[in-house]
Amino acid sequence: MNAIKETHFNFPGQTNFYKGKVRDVYTVNNKYLVMVVSDRISAFDVVLPEPIPYKGQVLNQIAAKFLQATSDIVSNWVVSVPDPSVTIGRICEPFKVEMVIRGYLAGHAWREYSAGRRQVCGVSLPEGLKENDKLPEPIITPTTKASIGHDEDISKEEILKRGIVSAEDYEKLEKYTRALFERGTEIAAKQGLILVDTKYEFGKADGAIYLIDEIHTPDSSRYFYSEGYQERQDAGEPQKQLSKEFVRKWLIENGFQGKDGQIVPEMTPEKVQSISERYIELYEQITGEKFIKSDGENILSRVEKAINNELTKL
Question: What pTM does this model have?
Answer without folding.
Answer: 0.92
